[in-house]
Design a protein that fits this description.
445 residues, alpha/beta, six-stranded mixed beta sheet, three-stranded antiparallel beta sheet, 9 helices, GTP-binding, G_SEPTIN_dom, Septin, nucleotide-binding, P-loop_NTPase
Length: 445
Amino acid sequence: MGRITQTLDRGTLPRRPASRSHLFTVDVETGNEEERCLELGGHVGFDSLPDQLVSKSVTQGFCFNILCVGETGIGKSTLMNTLFNTLFEAEEASHYQNGVYLRPRTYDLKESNVQLKLTVVDTVGFGDQINKEESFKPIVDYIDTQFETYLQEEMKIKRSLFDYHDTRIHICLYFIAPTGHSLKSLDLVTMKKLDSKVNIIPIIAKADTISKSELHKFKIKIMSELVSNGVQIHQFPTEDEAVTEINSSMNAHLPFAVVGSVEEVEVGNKMVKARLYPWGTVQVENESHCDFVKLREMLLRVNMEDLREQTHARHYELYRRCKLEEMGFTDTDPDNKPFSLQETYEAKRKEFLGDLQHNEDDMRQMFVNKVKETEAELKVKERELHERFEQLKRMHQEEKRNLEEKRSDLEEDMNDFNRRKVAAETLMGQSLQGSSQPFRKDKKK
């Protein structure tokens, strides 16, 4: 869908002369195209296609997804509120997050008769950890997840892309801390990881904290570091003659130095959005104070549709192409013949079934080998148990034999003891009888 800059009534649409049309024919022998002009006898009506496109687009509505990347407290939520002239609900994040997580919020906005489904994705906890090496990974994973979700919907047999809520990120506003020195290594690494996946517009946040001369030098330093590190930021298109001049001018102002505020302060005889300081007032929409107006003009009023197109035609197509190549799809076969989806599907299906059968055979063989190994182990353990049983049996018999021998010895000892006891009792009885007879004789005497 092309860029729509304004809605025209059918009666005011510029029309080409109705007397001439162009026809292209192809010479079968040479293959060259030849252009022939055909005359139209009158007005046909296909010059109303722009009107139809505008009407359909307005009825369907638009979606726009913004990713805000920056440290906690750098002013991401305030800038979003200022850009859309409203107050979005936002939870204040702390500086003590264990990691980086993304928090998307979707809002339905309406201006005049145009409906916009706006999604603002905030990077909570970005740059707050001591170890920042993996801070970019959740952001990259989130962008890839949105691409994958859209790809899965696109590849369905029964698709519903007309009313599908597209969550692909259209623009990444990268907030840079106004240090006045140079970019942090985290900024360079993160933007380098994101530049092939999303349109990046760098922003110097809280630009009212540094002087104009320092800000000018800081902008030059940032662009120099981005170029030297191979970071590709989004350049506003200059192919369309209607926006060539303004986009060329705005490309020279990157990165935008912005100030956000939803507070209205009386300046002169009117109320303006501004930040009030003891030394003066910084007006948000005053171009001599900051670049907020330039950012709003480029982001919302001139290039919003181009950002949506770039996301689909460049970043999503790159992801889709890489994903399909990983799955084995190509534009041509090995013989450089036109690509056939049916043949590729059948080939991939056969390959998959072959791999499945191969894996099944491997698993079956592995199961058989495992059973054999288990049986062998069980036989070894059974043999060891049997040997142990025999050994215990021999030990038991030996102990039983020893006990029997000890028992017989004990019985012999007991019999010997009893014999000695009887003999002793007999001798004692005899001795007692012998000693009692003289005693009776003496008594008689």
